[in-house]
Amino acid sequence: VQLVESGGGLVQPGGSLRLSCAASGVSFKSYVMSWYRQAPGKERELVAAIWSAGGNTDYGDSVKGRFTISTDNAKNMVYLQMNSLNPEDTAVYSCNARRSTHYWGQGTQVTVSS
Fold it and tell me: Are the beta carbons of 45 and 60 closer than 8 angstroms?
């Protein structure tokens, strides 16, 4: 299993970013694909999850209504569309694949600042 994130960067408050995760060695039909984030000095938290090849999703309370997780099953890609970003969203965002074991990508930094 290999997960490679991209799309992070610096964005102003109120702006948007789309993160991408290129997944190899996984089937979206049998893995739960998730985005997690960890800010300095804070615990890692679940941002969003998607399973059953995109048929089901779940979100952390702090991002509901602002973030959207999706998959492109043909390309084996997982996306996280992030809108209305605020400084509290600043963190390293990591792609995760889970079945019986957790697999992690290297993470991508998202910084929300003016």
Answer: yes
